[in-house]
Hints:
The chain has a domain at 3-34. The protein is built from one helix and no strands. It has one helix at residues 3-16.
Amino acid sequence: MALQEILSLRFLKAKKMDDVQDDAYKTMLCIETANALADAKYLASGEEHTLQCCFNRENRD
């Protein structure tokens, strides 16, 4: 996918969010977790699972 296409999709997503400025897509970082690949969890009806993700920020001055 070309960079311009990615930016256009982010712009459209930002436009739909009431609490995000229209040009925020230029500086925002979107992180999404996924239940995928070899460690995917398959749940039966009524079962629950919590997916968590932790991030650290390191200064690289």
